[in-house]
Every structure is written in structure tokens, then in C-alpha cells.
Amino acid sequence: MELNSVKEMVDVHTDVDTVDVLVIGAGPTGLALGADLARRGVDALVVERAGALFPGSRGKGIQPRTMEVFDDLGVLDAIRAAGGEYPVGMVWQDGRRAGEHQMFDPADTTDDSPYSTPWMVPQWRTQEILFARLEELGGRVAFGREVVGVEETDGAGVTVEFASGAPVRARYVVAADGGRSVVRRALGIAMTGETVDPNPMLVADVRITGLDRDNWHVFPPRADTGGFLAICPLAGTEDFQVVAQFPEGTDVDLSLEGIRRTVAARSHLAPEDVTEVRWASDFRPRAALADRFRAGRVFLAGDAAHVHSPAGGQGLNTSVQDAYNLGWKLGAVLSGAAPAALLDTYEAERRPVAADMLGLSTRVHRGETRRGAATRQLGLGYRDSSLAVETRPELPDEALRAGDRAPDATVGGVRLFDVFRGPHWTLLTVGTDEEPPGLPGVRTARVDAYERYGTGVFLVRPDGYVGWAGGTTRTLPEYAATVGLATG
Q1: Residue 337 CB: number of other CB atoms within 10 A?
Q2: Which of 25, 67, 195, 326 could covalently link to 115 via disulfide, CB atoms 3.0 to 4.6 Å apart?
Q3: Mean pLDDT of the chain
């Protein structure tokens, strides 16, 4: 599998670096995966085509489920310190405040869901935090590494070649190199999708005077402007994110003067109120899903596998959760504890989720649904997965089942998220005297009956979903063997 026309441009190298996992792309997906692999002791390398981390705010919303992921990865405190809650929307008409607009449906913090609303952190800052955590855990990132060839020749590994520098030989490769993924194209994997909106969009990080930072300022379209303008203060910074829509066919001007003209034409602000442009980009909102998430020893994750409209804040979050799903599986297979077939469950579990989230973000973009409970991603799960084994008969409809997210709770002074945190499996016994079998490397906890769990024994996966659930542990050893947990 090679890129046509560029293969001959690669320098000939006699030396080849070797790693267990090569992660291509140092965005949120690649950095989260790199950190997860590092804490599992996996020899992994993250490579990035650019010379530095992405500098813009693009994906700024961290959904509650991703907050739980960041809790487990050990970056939650930094994420919370770096950001803030979303401000209330303020709609402007003719230079006057016309009324407030709630961007998100309200949600209460509960014992089982401690993070209830999205948290705003500019993407560049999220990446800095993940990068620092990856390095703290001993992980590595190499910048300025442009992929020009991907080849799996012997069934035992993949060789990736770069425009400069030595090739890398890896047992597995994860392509997290964005919506225009070079690796996906080299593999010949198509994306199926649609244009969500033919109108081009501007997104830019700017400095502005004359606007308060207490509101997300929305300027509805007028007949003479052709599109809306939204100016949102970016939590934890002095910047604002400007988003503007233009008529189809417009060549969007990304310069300081161009952005000044757009802001002045659509708001009461003067051109000189925009004092600086720190980053700017244009795009056409689209939704697309890769036909496959895997080709042999190469996996697709993040935008390389699914491209979202930014509406609803699903892209970055779905991408980070791809990494969270794949990391523990790669670790288990590479250690020799689990069979290679475990990796087949990555596409089986994540592709349907990505498809659902693509549909959701498209509906939000088109105004067909609000940013409500579904966008928080707490209800996502894998009940249909081969890794979800439920052995309790006749459960009520509302019961927690195998494949569901394992909720938080504090029972008898024990907080479950504290028990789950880390790269291990957890065997949780709730309200029963059942004695579970010994599972080496599995953390155990016993709590009293709790309404959200009911009673039973729950084997919780490293990514926080219930893998196996039962009233007795009779079939637990058989399940444990399939996921690399040898019984004692």
C-alpha cells in the first residue's frame, strides 16, 4: 500500500526504527492514544507532519463523557483549569441586545454523572495538555514527519516511510491524521458522506475590543450580508472565536482586513475593534464516514475515520473516544494476554457510534434538533458488541446491562470512578455475597446495593463500560479468557 507518484521521492535508508505502535497525527486523537498506550507500557511513537501542535481553537467543546475519559487519563484537573462553562448566547439586532439564547439544554449533575454540561477549552490548549501528559508518561512525539508510503508486506508489521528521516516499522499503525488522511487514501479506503451545508464557513481566533466576555454573541443573517456571525469568548484565554457563514461560492478572505470587513458588516463593531488574528481557516461543513476503520494492521481513528459538522461538538469527542476504545485493546494484544481477534471489536464497536454521532451533528447543524442529552454522549454504549455478555435473566428495561457505560457513584465512602481510574479492568460486586474468582491484574471492589447498579457482579472494561455482568460468576472465567484476563 503506497502513495502513487511520491514513492520514488523518498530517500533510501538503511536504518529502520521499530516500535510496537506508530500513531500518525498529533491531534487530540493521536495524543490521547499515545498517552493511553504510554501508561500501559506500550512502545509507541506519535508522528506529526507539522512542525508543532495545531494552533487553533477549532474543536472547543469537551462533552461530559469525554470529561470522564480525561478523568481516567489523568488530565481532568488541567482541562478544568484551562477552560470554563459556555456563556449564555446573546442575540443582537441593529446594534442592540435582543434577547438571550440557551445554546444547550440544561442538565443536572448527579451522583452517577458528575460532569453534566460541556466544558469549553480551545483545541490548541487541549492538545497542549494531552501532549504534556503523554511526555509525563514517557511517550514520544516526533514533529516534521510527513508520511509518503505505507506498506504491510509480511503480515507481521507495517513499514511507514517519510519525506525525510528513517522509515518506521511498527507492529500496528493508527492513522489519526485528519479528514484528508494521507494514510486512509494510501490504503484505498473510501469515505461515504454528504455536504451538510454548501455555504462556506470562516472560523478564526481573534482579539476584539468592545465586546463583553459574558456572552456568546450571535448576529443573525441580514439580506445584505448573506450569513450569520457568531463571536464566542474562548474560556481561559483573551481570544474570541469568530464563526461566519458566507453564500455558496464565496472565496473567504482569511486576512486581518478581510475578517475586519466581515465583523464590521455584520455587527455594530468597527473594523479596528478586531485588533489581531491569531489563527484562521475556512471549510465547507460535511459529514463523511470511512467504509472501514481497519485494513490489516492499520486502524483509522478520529477525523481520518469520520468527519463531522462542528455543530453539536461531536467530532473531537467521538475522536478521543476512538482512541480510548482502541488503546486498551492494543495493549492487551501486544502484551500477549489477549488474542489478536480482540482488535476486530474496534471497528465493530466504534463505527456504529461514529455513524450515529454523524447523524446527530448533521441534525444539530440543520436545526432539526437541539444540543441536548444525546450530544453529551453519556448514553453511548456497546450492548450489541461481542464483548458485552449479560447473564442475568429478565432484567427490567431500565437496568444497567453489559455494554453500558459504568456509572459513577459514592457508596459507603467508596467512589467508583476512583476505583475505575487507571489502565486496569475492575471487578465490582454490588449488594451480593458472591465470591468472584481471582483475576490477576484486575482491581476488585465490593459495595452495598445501589439503585443505579441494582445487585450483581460487574466486570468493568478499562474504558469504563460493563463487559460482563451476572448474578453469579459461573461463566465469568470463560469471558475473562477471551479478553486476556487469565484466572488464578
Answers
A1: 16
A2: 67
A3: 92
Q: Is the pLDDT of residue 266 over 80?
A: yes
Q: Output the pTM of the full model.
A: 0.94
Query: Are β-strands 410-411 and 168-175 bridged in parallel, bridged antiparallel, or unpaired?
Result: unpaired
Q: Which helix (H) or strand (E) holds 64?
A: helix 64-73
Q: What is the pLDDT of residues 375-399, one digit of tens each?
A: 888 999 999 999 999 999 999 999 9
DSSP secondary structure letters along 404-464: SB----EETTEEHHHHH-SSS-EEEEES----PPP-TT-EEEEE--BTTTBSEEEEE-TTS
* Single-letter code of the amino acid located at 430: V
In a domain, 43, yes or no: yes
CATH label of the domain that carries residue 247: 3.30.70.2450
CA dist 328 and 321 (Å) reads: 12
pLDDT confidence of residue 154: 82
Q: How far is CA 326 from CA 71, 175, 302, 323, 387, in A?
A: 17, 12, 11, 5, 13
Provide the domain limits for residue 473. Answer: 389-482
Q: Residue 23 in 3-state DSSP?
A: strand
Per DSSP, the residues of 291-336 read S-SEETTEEE-GGGTEE--STTS-HHHHHHHHHHHHHHHHHHHHTT
Which band of pLDDT confidence, cut at 50, 70 and 90, is reported for residue 304? very high
Q: What is the pLDDT of residue 487?
A: 58
Please report the DSSP string for 191-218 in residue order. Answer: EEEEES-SS-EEEEEEEESS--SSEEEE
> If you average pLDDT over residues 206-225, what whole number do you get?
93
**Are 102 and 173 part of one and the same domain?**
no
Q: Say if CB 259 and CB 334 are below 8 A apart.
A: no
| Predicted confidence (pLDDT) at residue 131 exceeds the cutoff of 50 | yes
For 98, other C-beta atoms within 10 Å of its C-beta total 12
Mean pLDDT of the region 260-288: 96
Task: Provide the grid cell at 36.
Answer: 493511553
Tell me the three state secondary structure of residue 396: coil
Q: How far apart are CA 97 and CA 412, in angstroms?
A: 50
CB of 255 closer than 8 Å to CB of 282:
no
3-state SS assignment for residue 237: coil
The reply to whether 144 and 278 lie within a common domain is no
Residue 7 pLDDT class (50, 70, 90 cuts): very low
